């Protein structure tokens, strides 16, 4: 068994079915065309990173991140924007492995903190426990307003 992480590259769009499955599990169902367009933009943005978790040449997880600047102090932080492990592989330590690799990338990029938001829905309780168990603290409440 080989387990590794690596950054998304544009040729990974050829493995769209696995990526579509992960997006659906995140609650972001989309089409191949829309996801390909979105990932090309992300891939070409210097502050965005998509870390893939690959087991035996199959993409089983992803961690989408953005490097950001603090307003309140000097330095940069990494914001985790999308994080998912294929449900067939959960409970086996793969999420913790991908999270640690995400933290390592953030550290390599001289980020002082890693942050994330997670919905307050009942189905997110397991995710919240996962984050608590991996050293995250609940520090704030997120708010959102649709503009268009």
Automatic annotation (TrEMBL):
Pfam family, one: Acetyltransf_1
Domain N-acetyltransferase per the UniProt entry, residue ranges: 3-148
InterPro entries assigned: Acyl_CoA_acyltransferase, GNAT_dom
Gene Ontology MF term list: acyltransferase activity, transferring groups other than amino-acyl groups
PROSITE patterns: GNAT
Protein name: GNAT family N-acetyltransferase
């Amino acid at each position: 068994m080989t387990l590794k992480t690596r950054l998304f590259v544009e040729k990974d769009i050829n493995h769209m079915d696995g990526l579509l499955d992960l997006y659906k599990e995140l609650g972001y169902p989309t089409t191949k065309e829309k996801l390909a367009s979105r990932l090309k933009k992300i891939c070409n943005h210097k502050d965005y990173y998509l870390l893939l978790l690959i087991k035996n040449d199959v993409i089983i997880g992803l961690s989408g991140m953005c490097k950001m600047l603090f307003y309140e102090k000097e330095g940069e932080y990494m914001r985790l924007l999308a994080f998912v492990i294929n449900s067939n592989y959960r409970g086996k330590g793969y999420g913790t492995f991908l999270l640690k690799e995400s933290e390592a990338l953030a550290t390599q990029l001289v980020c002082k903190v890693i942050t994330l938001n997670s919905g307050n829905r009942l189905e997110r309780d397991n995710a919240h426990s996962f984050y608590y168990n991996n050293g995250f603290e609940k520090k704030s409440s997120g708010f959102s307003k649709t503009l268009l």
